[in-house]
Design goal:
11 strands, alpha/beta, 7-stranded mixed β-sheet, 425 residues
């Protein structure tokens, strides 16, 4: 019995199902029809013996017609993805559970951050066997009441395990996971002050740019971005024609929004024949960058200017100009963004390459519920407070096009919270 979509929907809803979505499976259905037609033919003798010749001929005729109709687009197949419908009380309980999970995650972030900054997690990591509460207090030198409560909280969030009669130890693989994400944990803990001030800011309070925020937050954000640069040199640059070879031979590079100098230092190490210049508006970041460059012994090849990128000036042009999480902080004004990109374009040599690494804001609202996009959508609120604004990948490309760039390409990679776009001047 074949019915219209509306009939199927009515039947499913009457049976107590909530239809989440309907997927067109017609292309696969055509293959299924052809497969079953072949199966019937391969079992011809058995079917005739068991069911009779008339049954076999009728079945083959039906399968052939179904195949022809499906190939012609007349006959298709839809998959109805459903779940058991919730009553209003069940839906309220479900939403309450979601919000409680959010509260739990918020508390868990603070427990991990407290463990990192107090050194308690470091003590557990360094000790090979389980540690009792008394030993934790003695080794940490912290107030007993705080150590005890932290241990119970860390256990409740499954960060650590408890071995009866012995004490506390890292939960399986929790150490590795925290080590990989510790910079992000620290950054979001530092962002708490920004989130706390958002309700007042939403009434129209003047924006407070990142260079006027607590420098501890700036440093935490910079640490998170350090992992971007190995990805740029290892995965992104090789995808840009002839650029990697040029940088290996020796080229002039410009880091716009150099921050603490992590990007410039990384590029100098990977491409030892190249010269790297940078600009940074935040005096605190600028001074820290100079210290980091000196510490690495790269003063002869890496230099940073303290200047607004909109007003930067050099007596030379560059083979490669790159921005790592800089563009979204420039302005919320469309024209100012275009003028900034045009200024960057004047820094390029003929045939030079421009690379922008950014946070990809969802192009459609439905994309916001993907795990990575949940993080970015919350960050976008902070960026609005800082005076910046995120854009979708297509939005970034459109800005470049309006600013006169050519050969604009989004470079594929596996990081869902980054988008890399190359262009030429």
């Amino acid at each position: 019995y074949i019915a219209a979509n509306s009939d199927y929907k009515e039947l499913l809803e009457e049976a107590g199902f909530q239809i989440l979505r309907v997927e067109d499976n017609s292309r696969q259905f055509t293959n299924i029809i052809a497969k079953w037609e072949g199966v019937n033919l391969s079992y011809k003798n058995m079917l005739i013996k068991e069911c009779g010749l008339d049954y076999f001929n009728t079945a083959i005729k039906r399968w052939r017609l179904a195949r022809e109709f499906s190939q012609a687009g007349v006959l298709g197949q839809n998959l109805f993805i459903c779940r058991k419908a919730f009553s209003s009380s069940m839906m309220e309980k479900e939403q309450t559970k979601k919000i409680l999970n959010l509260l739990s995650g918020f508390c868990g972030l603070w427990v991990i951050n407290a463990g990192l900054e107090s050194g308690l997690l470091g003590i557990i990591a360094d000790y090979r066997s389980a540690l009792s509460e008394k030993k934790m207090i003695a080794k940490s030198g912290l107030a007993p009441r705080y150590v005890k409560n932290w241990l119970y909280a860390a256990y409740s969030f499954e960060i650590i395990d408890y071995i009866p009669g012995k004490g506390f130890i890292y939960a399986p693989f929790a150490k590795e996971a925290i080590e990989r994400l510790k910079n992000e944990i620290c950054m979001y803990a530092k962002l708490s002050r920004v989130f706390a001030s958002l309700p007042r800011a939403m009434s129209g309070k003047p924006r407070k740019p990142l260079l006027k925020q607590d420098f501890a937050l700036v440093k935490a954000m910079s640490e998170v971005t350090k992992s971007d640069f190995p990805e740029i040199t290892g995965q992104i640059i090789p995808k840009i024609p002839r650029l990697e070879m040029k940088l290996k031979k020796g080229a002039a590079m410009l880091d716009v929004g150099a921050g603490l100098g992590h990007g410039a230092i990384h590029f100098a190490k990977v491409f030892p024949k190249s010269i790297i210049s940078g600009v940074e508006i935040d005096e605190r970041a600028y001074k820290t960058a100079l210290k980091n460059i000196k510490k690495e012994g790269l003063e002869n090849r890496v230099s940073i200017k303290k200047v607004d990128a909109n007003k930067m000036h050099f007596n030379k042009k560059f083979d490669f100009v790159f921005l790592n999480l800089t563009f979204h902080e420039i302005s919320q004004d469309y024209e100012r963004k275009i003028l900034f990109l045009k200024k960057c374009r004047t820094m390029l040599k003929e045939g030079g390459v421009f690379l922008i690494s950014e946070l990809p804001f969802p192009a459609k609202i439905a994309e916001c519920r993907a795990p990575a996009m949940k993080i970015l959508s919350s960050l976008s609120i902070c960026e609005a407070f800082f005076g910046g604004e995120l854009a979708s990948p297509s939005g970034y490309k459109e800005f470049l096009k309006k600013a006169g760039y050519k050969n604009i390409r989004q470079l594929k990679q596996g990081n869902p919270v980054r988008v890399f776009i190359s262009a030429t001047g």
